[in-house]
Input
Amino acid sequence: MRRSEGRPELGPGKLAHCWGIALFLLLISSGCARSSSTHASEGKPAAESSAEVAPVLADTPVPEFNASRAMEYVKEIVAFGPRALGSEGHKKTENFILAHLKGDQVERDDFEITTLEGRFPVHNILARYPGSKDGVIVIASHYDTNWPLRTENYVGANDGASSSALLLELANQMRGKKRDGYSVWLLWDDAEESMKLPWDDAESLYGVKHLADKWQTAGTLKKVKAFLLEDMIGDADLNIERDANSTPWLEDLIGGAATRLGYQSHFFAREIAVTDDHAPFLSRGVPSADLIDLDYGYNNVFHHTIHDTLDKLSPKSLAIVGTVTLQTVYMLDQR
Ligand SMILES: [Zn+2]
Output
């Protein structure tokens, strides 16, 4: 993924500034109450304001998610080594995912791409868990690592492994249960990473671009009620961004789900704009959201480096994002 340019950022510094101005306005004149409250709501963390629009679900149980099992999956994927296209580690990861989906409704989407670096096979993996309601919620994660970093023993513990492991644990939670809601499709997509660095829009997102085209042609796309993307969600210091490119009402719903579970302090303190695997679905009108933490180490210093390793991650973060995702699915079912 890459952080998009030219979009406004609402960083913590700016938040403090907004609050300061709001407080000042409130103090100097009661006549300014309206404008100051408007200003304050702009500067307020989105998770708090979204709680106002999200339904209150006091009677719903906290979703189940086995975080230590998910963390074991992360370790096993990382142990395969770099997962660049065409590599041994990529093949092993693919087989690992498939082995954990035995008995599930699995569909493979295999094709070849021509890139700046040559021709490569690409393998998207989809597992379907049928529901009673007409429509589909897709939850996706890429599992590849960058081609340019293939010789550096770059393993992408957070970038690719954490979210792919999270999806395997979501599969455990979906398996064998009757879904009283939309069907859930888990997607481990391939070739997300750019074939050259810095990021190149034309040389990346190959897996999802192919699938979005295929689903558009087949008429599948209009059945997709929401596309939820997980990326870099294992950081022990978890700060999920509010993505300005994602569908606002879906971001609000996620913020409401986080608030419902008491995890709002890990969500939406900062707003940035991200180009990621949700892009081809967003551009085709599918409500889409990216759950991503692009504050991975101070100033995101671990991202796309050999320092993206297991020791930076926490099972607690997997549990937070896993349960918030399941709560979001539940809230989508109720809409
Ligand atoms: Zn990446």
User: Anything to note?
Assistant: Residues 6-56 have pLDDT under 50 and may be disordered. The chain has two domains: 1-44, 46-334. Residues 180 and 255 are 23 Å apart (CA to CA). Residues 1, 159, 193, 304 surround zinc ion (CB under 6 Å).
